[in-house]
Design brief:
CATH superfamily of the largest domain: Resolvase, N-terminal catalytic domain
Structural class: alpha/beta
Radius of gyration: 20 Å
Strand order of the largest sheet: 2-1-3-4
CATH class of the largest domain: Alpha Beta
Distance between the termini: 37 Å
CATH architecture of the largest domain: 3-Layer(aba) Sandwich
Largest sheet: 4 strands, parallel
Order of helices and strands: EHEHEHHEHHHH
Strand content: 5-15%
Mean pLDDT: 85
Number of strands: 4
Helix content: 40-55%
Number of domains: 2
CATH topology of the largest domain: Rossmann fold
Number of helices: 8
Low-confidence stretches: none
């Protein structure tokens, strides 16, 4: 059995590895091989390269360990159903560090207890995933409202593809966002937007 630790942050500027130490300590209590998967991708995307690799490498009986449900998913309900199906198909036990009822699944050998725990955990995980998605939706709506109240109006300008290509080129060379913005003659927010998109 292998414990597959998955940590995620939305952007490269966020520290996806922030929770790794605590998850490593937790994994030691399971007494299994440990593999780590670190990703900087939005939780609203189903197609994430590192998560896909984790699922491809997983074997029946392995444990997928995450810090919290929102680190695994901020997906729409349909996409979350797809992800849950892939996890179930691989035979992974999903353990969420901040959801103690999932911890009991790791060493449970009693079929009745395991069935009850699975039922309870599936409901809790679905609820937490829905809350994470709604939180993300609310945040986006608040940003739109704030922009509207500030008088911001989209200009309808076409994207400057040459500028975008230059931003990506400078990023690949290792320049920090502020240096890229200065070199290209745009705002730092534009650099973040181009690199995220």
């Amino acid at each position: 059995m292998t414990v597959r630790i998955y940590v995620r942050a939305s952007t490269k500027d966020q520290d996806a590895e922030r929770a790794l130490d605590d998850l490593r300590k937790f994994a030691l209590t399971i007494k299994a091989d440990v593999k780590e998967y670190v990703e900087n991708e939005s939780g609203t995307k189903l197609d994430r390269p590192v998560l896909n690799r984790l699922l491809d490498e997983s074997r029946n009986g392995d444990t997928l360990l995450v810090e919290s449900v929102d680190r695994l998913s901020r997906l729409s309900q349909n996409d979350f159903d797809v992800l849950k199906g892939r996890i179930k198909e691989k035979g992974l036990k999903l353990v969420v560090a901040d959801l103690p009822t999932t911890h009991m699944l790791v060493n449970s050998s009693d079929n009745i207890t395991s069935s009850i725990l699975n039922l309870v955990n599936n409901m809790l995980i679905d609820l937490l995933a829905t809350m994470a998605r709604l939180d993300n939706d609310k945040r986006r709506e608040r940003i739109k409202q704030g922009l509207k109240r500030s008088g911001y109006k989209p200009t309808g300008k076409k994207a400057d593809t040459a500028k975008h290509a230059r931003i990506k080129e400078l990023n690949a060379k290792g320049l920090i966002k502020e240096e890229i913005a200065k070199a290209v003659g745009c705002g730092v927010a534009t650099v973040y937007s181009v690199l995220k998109g």
